[in-house]
């Protein structure tokens, strides 16, 4: 079972059967659900339910696989690029 843990306090953890589903949620769904831009994906081995997997992550009984940053939209990328350019030009 793969569990997505947003890197902010009091955020809900969600369990997934596949790493692809967990990664997709970590890249897009976490930000939409709670505004967090980074998440950890944990792996819980064995025949466990989603609730048991989430509890294992909360208790530190899981294997952290990766940290995922959310995907930015094309508009967000352009704004970020323009902000960086303005900072360079204005010496901010």
UniProtKB/TrEMBL annotation:
Q: What is this protein called?
A: Uncharacterized protein
Species annotation:
Bradyrhizobium canariense
